Amino acid sequence: MSNPQPLKEEAYDMSGARLALTLCVTKAREGSEADLDALELMFQKLGFESTIKRDPTAQQFKEELEKFQEAIDAREDFVSCAFVVLMAHGLEGRLKGEDEEMVNLEDLFQVLNNKNCRALRAKPKVYIVQACRGEQRDPGETVGADNSVMVVKYSPETIPTYTDTLHVYSTVEGYIAYRDDKKGSYFIQTLVDVFTNRRGPILELLTEVTRRMAKEELVQEGEARKVNPEIQSTLRKRLYLQ
């Protein structure tokens, strides 16, 4: 039996501009400013050009992302990657703007995909979503075959529309995301700490974020709660931020 071949490590080229846009509803979301301060410091340490927009309406969420996309495509220098941080009250697949109206996350995600943003084609696009995805609360649980993969070859001149994207949600589908009125959200604070103080490919860093969050026990409404992020990736290469 032949020995399995080690994976060839290929990383995204991060030598160009790193761009970040944060859209945050602070209204009725105490602790949001602590999250914004932490993110601003993280992006500064990681060499990002960062823009923050506070209290967007539902319509402005999409408008600000479209402006971000247009500015990226208008640049003459090389762009390495883009981060988009979305923070608001929410339900599964939707965010609530400052005006209490809802915007669909999918409408926001598609603005920077490989079809709609030329400068980010085949470049990493990372979305960080700090919002509830439902009303369920997790009290936690007590801890007490190989499938064949079909490889479909495709032309090297083309790329799928939705590759090179990373969606990082503060909680799993259907559940609440927790936020401290003074310290900010546990998800954002943990993510910032790991991203600024640890080295490695981003998916390994996110595994550490998940490990830390899953280990902690949060007390909300007088009850012990558990929460963990959810990570959805179509990255084709390793993404290093340090």
Automatic annotation (TrEMBL):
InterPro entries: Caspase-like_dom_sf (IPR029030), Caspase_cys_AS (IPR033139), Pept_C14 (IPR002398), Pept_C14_caspase (IPR011600), Pept_C14_p10 (IPR002138), Pept_C14_p20 (IPR001309), Pept_C14A (IPR015917). GO terms for molecular function: cysteine-type endopeptidase activity. It is found in: Cytoplasm; Nucleus. Gene3D superfamilies: 3.40.50.1460. One of its GO terms (cellular component) is mitochondrion. It holds the Pfam family Peptidase_C14. One of its GO terms (biological process) is positive regulation of neuron apoptotic process. SMART domains: CASc. Its main location: cytoplasm. Residues 29-136 form the Caspase family p20 domain. Residues 155-242 form the Caspase family p10 domain. It comes from the Eukaryota. Keywords: Cytoplasm, Differentiation, Hydrolase, Nucleus, Protease, Thiol protease, Zymogen. The keyword Nucleus applies. Belongs to the peptidase C14A family. Heterodimer of a large and a small subunit, both processed from the precursor; the mature active form is a p17/p10 dimer and the intermediate form a p20/p8 dimer. PANTHER family: CASPASE, CASPASE-14. This is Caspase-14. It comes from Camelus dromedarius. The lineage of its organism: Eukaryota, Metazoa, Chordata, Craniata, Vertebrata.
